[in-house]
Specification:
471 residues; alpha/beta; 5-stranded mixed β-sheet; 3-stranded antiparallel β-sheet; binds ligand P71
């Protein structure tokens, strides 16, 4: 028998190995859940991974939102919370961090991203106005619609093709924006809703050039641009890697330049900024800020805490700085890519190129025999949980909801199951376990049937909808 030389992870992939730029100081034990327990839990959850108890989950890839591990410095910062009702010291630390790293003048904290979306939508959209955006996000579009806005998708066509290798699949199609402005008139455009690493497209980045050109276009018509900065640090990594002229620029400088092309931003700090809760809304215009500062007290809390404790703002200020460190972002995206490479090598259909925060499995190609009306991406999430206790999330027809006018399902082109990687939480060995589970589910795909929806709530139905298997 010939004995092969054991290979390190890097050697297997023909490169130098990389490792996480942190070591572990505290551990949280995982529970191994038996097959019988998983079967029972899945039925109780109506085949919806949002309705599983986390105690019944082994590796939780539902989301990267609020699930990251804080650093020793952030935890130390939590002890420095100034819990004064007004003017907390931690607010000023946060304000300073946002001004330093994102470059906007004025900021209000919010309890999380959708709190900021609510305030921006209510102040900046008049009923009947259009809101062009580079692909919808569920909560963002809902708040825009609740303010009377009409969302229009202006992302480049390549974004809707899970196999297209465009390096900046999150880019705005400038012609689509200009046509909309000309057709509807600039006064009927609320603002352009621009997002970094477009979540629903598979975590796909926007190029600096695209942001610069969008700014020039909007300036010609006097239209504002607001940025969803939720995963902007990750977007900056792709610019550094792929866009000429940025290879030697630090992540922080790239984020700052990108934001300079926009009029303000909203943030779910639960992603890039490495906290479990928190968000903010920042703008450069004083008059708008005055309105926001007033409205935040109605819905979130005083403008120096916005629904957060002082300690939360401190952790967010420190996390903001940590999120801009180049070695952190490189390892974060490197881990996602490692998983993506295994799946690609095994021929499992995933969205390419692999994005920043997650692997998006293309459920249409995974289950070609399951029609979209039988929820292939939801089915895949259920099957993965059954196989191994790994929790993922549907991002397809269930998430897309119904057309407000016709009441039909919205059938999005992308029918995806998202395996989202929390930051600084799981190791490369966990990624191996995930990859192997997905391979087993793929090998058994011919025996798998779709689902039927048996309960559907009115808003954001994917959170609470219930399903039954079709055979
Ligand atoms: C994600 C989430 C959290 C989530 C939200 C809705 C359904 C399922 C999961 C939240 C985002 C986001 C972007 C680009 C705004 C929000 C809202 N993402 N913009 O991906 O990704 O922020 O959750 O803090 O309110 O799992 P919020």
């Amino acid at each position: 028998m010939t004995q092969s030389t054991p290979q390190t992870m890097g050697q297997q992939f023909g490169r130098r190995s990389w490792a996480e730029p942190w070591k572990i100081k505290m551990v949280e034990p995982l529970r191994m859940v038996s097959r019988a327990e998983r079967e029972k839990a899945l039925v109780e959850a109506g085949y919806n991974t949002f309705l599983l108890r986390s105690d019944d989950v082994y590796i939780d890839l539902l989301t990267d939102s609020g699930t990251s591990a804080m650093s020793d410095r952030q935890w130390a910062g939590m002890m420095l919370g100034d819990e004064a009702y007004a003017g907390s010291r931690n607010f000023y630390h946060l304000e300073n961090a946002i001004q330093t790293y994102y470059g906007y003048r004025y900021m209000v904290p919010t309890h999380q991203g959708r709190g900021a979306e609510h305030l921006l939508s209510q102040t900046s959209i008049k009923p009947g106005q259009y809101v062009p955006g580079n692909m919808y996000f569920t909560t963002t579009r809902l708040h825009q619609e609740m303010a009377g806005g009409i969302f229009v998708d202006v992302i480049i066509d390549e974004a809707h093709d899970p196999a297209d290798m465009h390096p900046f699949k999150g880019n705005v199609d400038l012609a689509k924006v200009e046509t909309l402005i000309q057709e509807k008139g600039a006064a009927n455009i609320a603002y352009v809703s621009l997002a970094g690493t477009v979540n629903m497209a598979g975590g796909q980045p926007v190029s600096m050039e695209n942001a610069r050109q969008l700014r020039a276009l909007c300036d010609r018509y006097g239209v504002k641009i607001y940025l969803d900065a939720t995963r902007m640090a990750e977007n900056a990594y792709f610019i550094q890697e792929r866009e000429p002229g940025y290879a030697d620029k630090p992540i922080a400088a790239i984020v700052l330049e990108f934001c300079s092309y926009t009029d303000g931003a909203w943030m779910s700090a639960k992603k890039d900024s490495l906290v479990n809760i928190g968000g903010w809304l920042a703008v450069n215009d004083w008059d708008l800020f005055e309105e926001l500062r007033n409205l935040v007290v109605v819905f979130e809390g005083l403008h120096t805490y916005g629904g957060l404790a002082g300690r939360d703002m401190e952790a967010m200020a420190i996390g903001t700085a940590e999120s801009m460190q180049d070695d952190h972002i490189r390892a974060r995206i490197g881990q996602v890519r490692y998983l993506g490479q295994l799946l690609t090598d095994w021929g499992i259909p995933i969205v390419q190129p692999v994005g920043g925060h997650a692997i998006f499995v293309d459920a249409r190609r995974f289950y070609p025999h399951i029609p979209q009306s039988e929820f292939p991406a939801q089915t895949l999430a259920a099957e993965m949980y059954l196989d191994s206790g790994i929790r993922s999330m549907e991002r397809g027809v269930v998430s897309a909801g119904r057309n407000a006018k016709t009441g039909d399902h919205n059938y999005p082109k992308l029918e995806l199951t998202r395996l989202t990687i929390p930051r600084r939480v799981y190791t490369q060995a966990h990624m191996d376990v995930v990859a192997e589970s997905l391979k087993i589910v793929y090998d058994n795909r011919d025996q798998t049937h779709g689902l039927r929806m048996v309960y559907e709530p009115k808003y954001l139905r994917f959170f609470q909808a219930r399903f039954e298997p079709l055979a």
